[in-house]
Amino acid sequence: MAFDLNRTHFSSLLPYFFIALLSVLSFVFLDSWTQRTEMARLRAEQQEDVDQMASRAMARLDAYKTASANLAAFGSLNPDELEQQFAQMAAVLSDNNPSLISIALSKDYVIEQIYPFEDNKAAIGLDFRTREDLLPSIEKAMSTNMPVLMGPVRLVQGGTGLIVRAAVPTNPSYVFSVVVELDALLHEASVPIKLDRSITGVRVDGFEDSVTLFGDADVWDISPQSADIKIDEATNLTIATSHLAEFEDSLPFRIPIAIVVLSLAALATLAVNYTRRLITEKTAAQKQFQSAIDALEDAFVIYDEKDRLLYCNEKYLSYFEKSADLLVPGNTFEKIIKEGVRRGQYEEAVGREEEWIKERLDRHATPAEPFEMSLDNGQWIKVAESKTAEGYTVGVRVDITELKLATMRAEEASRAKSEFLNKLSHELKTPLSVLIGNIFFLKSPHLLPSYKTLADLVSASGEQTEALDALTQDLAKRAEKAESSGNQLNKLVEAIIEYARITGETTGIESVPVLLGDVLDAVRDEYSESAGKKGQKIELLAPKVHVLGQPSSLQKLFGHIVANAIQYSDAGGIEITVEENEGTAVVRIRDEGKGISPDRMEAIFESFSQEDGSDTREFSGLGLGLAIAKRLVDIHEGEISVESELGEGTTFIVSLPKAASSA
Fold this sequence. Notes:
The chain is an alpha+beta fold. Helices cover 49% and strands 21% of the residues.
């Protein structure tokens, strides 16, 4: 009876047992399915998070590229103000970007300025040509005129960084280098190191044998989700994030579906808040960008990758009044230009409209050097355009009306001066030529028919013949003195006119590659006779080197120096040698004359300056030869100096830029 009772009790519990077993099995199944489903969802969410981290980091890097391009654009428009404005521009950019630790400005590969200075002054004078790891990015920025991103690199301040470089297409070449601290950049991109349930890391393969640059290196051992940040064609930074193992073993989803719904609602709320934050940040960035552009003193415009107008400031609208209604977002550059030409907006297009439109569209499609443009209202502007990495076209317009008008007036004045000098040269040299020509007959009166008649009349008398011969000799001696003075006066007139002409030059010469040895050889041939009369010999030693210049001007330059050496030397040799340095050719002209006193060294290249300035001086002339030589050196963008000791001779040293063919 007891057994039956026990069996009945067991039977009554069996359904509960099965229910409990089924509940357990169901719970285990549902829990397992929930865990698998939730882990899959979490990994997808994790991938989205890491993609957004990479996207935000790229956006920050693109912002630094754009800022670097804007600095380069400013420099191309204002090369004379670039070095003076560098610190101010760098301060503005640095103050608004916490991850930016320094901005450097290099000139012809050498760092000349850096901001902030105190923390980075050790970098001043760094020559990138001595750094094989840095030189390729500098040369790439200079050859493409596009921002170049490189890294990661170890920073002298500690840590790891990236560098954005942008070149200024001028001569000399300037390059901006914007140094960004990697950790700060990733913090700005909201890349966490470690959360309650996950860890994050950033690495680049092969970087100094240390793969992890940021975060926790253990992330790579826990099946991470990852995304790449593209640095250049060969380098990617990889961001990875992974849930911790203990979190995977204890997923908190053994609760009713209502909690799941609440959890999904909470996740949706977080997603909405995150999206709203992104929208707010983007709107604020756009407002900040527009505010900065509107604050510029120059006109600014930007077109998208399909050449549609995105934005232009009020200054830009004021330049193009006839086309202002066309300057609205969405209109293409081609439509704006064609309609502007039809309305007469561009003065230089009148009479050649189709040809001008084609030239303007070609310049816009492939921006190069800045160019000048005249408008219908008489205004002149300088146009500078450049392409961004995304294909956008950024343009700046600068009012150069006053400068252009001043240049035109200067050119007109220069032409008037040239005409006057040519006329003056003719009016002075014509009577001089007649005078010197007639003096020739005074030196040789026997060539005159009247002299022959007179000689025949007095030939019968010996005394009269002797008197006539004495008169002839006296006339010849006085004619020689007159001829010498006439030739000297002729040279003085030529020197004065040449000096007036070159001192009035406002622009440089048209330089071409010139074989320096040929120029110096011509100078030696020209002055060898003058040197020989004083017992001097001109020796020349010149390797094959080309310089940038104008052959006739260079021959005059060295001719004046050699003539000076001959004048102030009584005997001995004049030695001309040429040396090659990096980027320059150095010509040394040494004489064995009396030398120059120390108190006259500084004034030797001044106009009308002579070693002996007294009325009884030994050597004649106005002292313009070396002044002309100095001016010709300046026009050729070279340098001239002198070394001398009294009684030991003088050496003139001329440095000229080499041509590419000598490199």
